[in-house]
Amino acid sequence: MPVAEHVLRHAAERPARPAVRGPQGELTYAELAEKINGAARHLLGQGSGRGALVSVGLDDPVALLTAALAADLAGATPLVGEPDWDRARWARVAGAVDAHVGAPLPYAEGPPVTPRAAPGDRAWACFTSGSTGRPRAVVRTRASWTGSFQHLCDLTGIGPDDVVLIPGPLSSSLYAFAAVHTLATGATAVLPGRWPGGSLAGHLASASVVHLVPHRLPDVLKQPGTLRTAVVGGAALDAGARAAAACAGVGVVSYYGATELSFVAVDADGGGLRPFPEVEIEVRNGARERPGEVWARSPWLADGYLGDAAGPLRRDAGGWVSVGDMAEPYRSGEVLRVRGRGDGAIQTGGATVVPEDVEEVLRRVPGVGDIVVIGSPHPYLGAVVTAVLESDGVAPPSRALLEATARGGLDTAQRPRRWYAVPSLPRTQGGKPARALLAERLAGGDPDIRRLS
Fold first, then answer.
1. Range of 328's domain?
2. Which of 274, 308, 342, 419 would be 324's cystine partner, CB 3.0–4.6 Å?
3. What is d(CA 252, CA 257) in angstroms, rounded to the nearest whole number?
4. Are strands 351-353 and 99-101 parallel, antiparallel or unpaired?
């Protein structure tokens, strides 16, 4: 997946074009290419060449990206994780690695490194835990991401003259993909390394494209600046968000996928999710109107997990893959309606409730920013449907209004019996609600989670 060879080409063709802007300043393509070459020579001098696994945990996003691209140029596989992990944590989540980069790589003098990239090389590894579980290292071939680059350009209009804001950690596959796609295109990647908060308006004043997760889109639309397109992935996009974006003059391209699957479906015009180019989709074992499992077959699938890590990824003999996400019954040519991860389903009184179905209805209530539905243990029913609203410093809607909406749009089994508010929902690196952590905090009596009466 890394695109060192693309960076070198852009450096030869447009050396003065800004490549990256980070917390420490800006690098042109010529400057970035020189840094990558020097760092690659250092790795090769340390014996971390073709086939090596190089773990990278750096706080500065430009230094991290430089190290990952240097590993790619040297023929190694970069494994990107969190900068605050110590060696013991790396060993637990990744097993044996050939080298670890915990500080910016030094520059080694010497002749330019000649890329020897092959489509089938294992060229990127990153961590995923979804909304539950310990991190697992997902590894993929170069072609499994680079082959999709032109499709994304066609869908979004991203080109070499764009300035692309990537406001999240590169340890997230969503933001990592956005960064390397931007560099492969020859555009400028703006990398604050995390959500920029008070400096968001300044970034948007010059950005033409932003990659982000759904719950960040409203902040962007308050001050869109020169923004043309928002590329949104990682979780369900509220229907009203697209209308709000249109009012702000921002086009939205949203997509559904997973770290293990990459792109599965895309909605470029508000008409609903349809298969991403070269992707086949099946929804299996759904009975009548009941959701079934999403299975995909495409060139964009990951190789699997590093080491002996267990995870939700499953394959069949026909090359189809699933991570357990659920969707309504689907036929080719129709809109795909994803209903979330099957392992998050709530069993209550003999009924199965998909949390995303409930969340979709409750997000229509005025004043609801984001909301997560989980199951709370119950001695007789197994679990009861529980809704937790993100209040973010404002008063949540009344429980009476929430319950009225639930009665009007949900079946009896789907309606929440318990209602809570929390200042900020816990989230994964990819921006998805961390359901298991939220349930744990609720069960532990977290004082920040208050019950709505």
1. 260-342
2. 342
3. 16
4. unpaired
